[in-house]
Amino acid sequence: MEPNAEGRLEETVAEVDRLLERHRLLEAVARRQDTPRSALLEEMQHRQNLVELHKRLRSLHPADLGHILESLPIGDRLVVWHELTPGLAGQALTEVSLGVRESLIEHTSRDALVDMLRELDADDLRYLSESVPADVVDEVSALLDARDRSWVEQTRAYDESSAARLMMQDALVLRDSQTVEEAVALIRRRGRLPAQTDRLFVVDSRNVLIGSIGLGTLIIADPGAAVTSVMDSDVRRFRPYDDAHEVAKAFERYDLLSAPIVDDRGKLVGRVTADAVMDFIRSSAGDDVLALAGLRKAEDLFAPAVDSARNRWPWLAVNLATAFIASRVIGAFEHSIQQLVALAALMPIVASIGGNTGNQTVALVVRGLALGQITANSAWHLLRKELLVAFLNGALWGTIVGLFATIVYRSVPLGLVMTSAVLLNLIIAAIIGVSVPLVLHRMDRDPAQGSSVMLTFFTDSMGFFLFLGLADVFLL
């Protein structure tokens, strides 16, 4: 049975690893040759060992190359990178994550970078423009024809999270004066269809979008019919400045394969395709996962330790500050802990179960915000529902924990305090888990950014305060 795509990719990665390992081994042997000709021998070994690697890399799809580059430590990654042809390297650059892309660009000379970008079309050049030095982009843009150069300059002016950054200019356009037969002839003259083409867009003499025709409709329509008679005038369209997240939601909701982009006058300026949207969704999802952990941006797994440490500093600093506050809460009840040592053993349970419950709530709220399922009105309903869930879970698990404390320490009052603290902390976790992402969203900030850090602070501090406070009142 033929292996699936994932299996073939794993085999390719393993094969490249073997070639790199053999390359390192033979180079090490060559360096140990202590003869006048050792330098020449090392150079010959270097060239010979890389021939097979070069041949294997040349046969790979750019997306597979991107995966391989992301999977290799920096030393091996650069060996592979420098063996790629300029055209293949430029395409691979569009496939790797932002962190890896920045690392590769940093280790590439300016002239080599210009050669790579010259091999790309205007859409790919625009896509990479945020990562590449502006002077390099300007130099490569100057080599494009006037239309492509204008396209790159205009789209670069839009925000990074706008629909314009997902836009391509390869839309197939028909005039409202054409017939179906002329439209089919237009497609045949082109020789090939742009990727992800499921429909052609119909414009009037001023280039204003008035409708679209699906390829299936075009094939079965009467050749002599006017395109306006078979087109669909109800076309879901977007503006260049529309939020890319909203575009992605619309593609998912309406199962779109492509959609037009029009300016404020309704003129067709480009299109968005499903593959661009999928890339955006994948990148955004990865950023959200990292943001939940307090990371500012996508981090290269094999980046230098100093760079990775710097990326993690901001929210670690916040976490350290909140930890000091939590420690002072415990410190305020030192006398209680000294009198009843069992409190020290039980209080982490209260904080832990509150943190876990809150993280579940945060995950649900962040997902709901990302999908546009939470409105101003539904937010209150969501809060009430999460409070009820917290009460039910708090009553159940608080009782279980309370029974555990009663049995182990033979103290019914201690068990009741434990039950009450767990119940109250789960209610607080629900409030924080809903409110923090909503507040960040209202402030136009990423709702995932640091939510878990803030949640941990509140559930730890309040968990300690509630448990130790109740114990101080009822047990001592």
What does this structure look like?
- The protein has 476 residues and is mainly α.
- The protein folds into 3 domains: 5-161, Alpha Horseshoe (MgtE N-terminal fold), CATH 1.25.60; 168-292, Roll (CBS-domain), CATH 3.10.580; 305-474, Orthogonal Bundle (Tetracycline Repressor, domain 2).
- Helix content is 67%, strand content 6%.
- The protein has 21 helices and 6 strands.
Count of distinct strands: 6
**What are the segments in which pLDDT stays under 50 over at least 5 consecutive residues?**
none
Total DSSP helices: 21
Neighbour order of strands in the largest sheet: 1-6-5
Kindly report the average pLDDT value: 86
Largest sheet: 3 strands, antiparallel
Using brief descriptors, characterize the structure shown.
globular, CBS-domain, single chain, Tetracycline Repressor, domain 2, 3-stranded mixed sheet, 476 residues, 67% helix, 3 domains, 21 helices, MgtE N-terminal fold, mainly alpha
Short description:
The chain is mainly alpha-helical and 476 residues long. 67% of the residues lie in helices and 6% in strands. It contains 21 helices and 6 strands.
Q: What is the element layout, followed by pairings?
A:
Layout: H1 5-31, H2 38-58, H3 62-71, H4 74-82, H5 86-93, H6 98-106, H7 110-118, H8 122-128, H9 134-141, H10 146-156, E1 167-168, E2 173-175, H11 180-190, E3 199-203, E4 209-214, H12 215-220, H13 227-230, H14 244-254, E5 258-262, E6 268-273, H15 274-292, H16 305-331, H17 334-339, H18 342-370, H19 376-409, H20 412-442, H21 451-474
Parallel strand pairs: 2-3
Antiparallel strand pairs: 1-6, 3-4, 5-6
Helix pairs in contact: 1-2, 3-4, 3-5, 5-7, 7-9, 8-10, 14-15, 16-21, 18-19, 18-20, 18-21, 19-20, 20-21
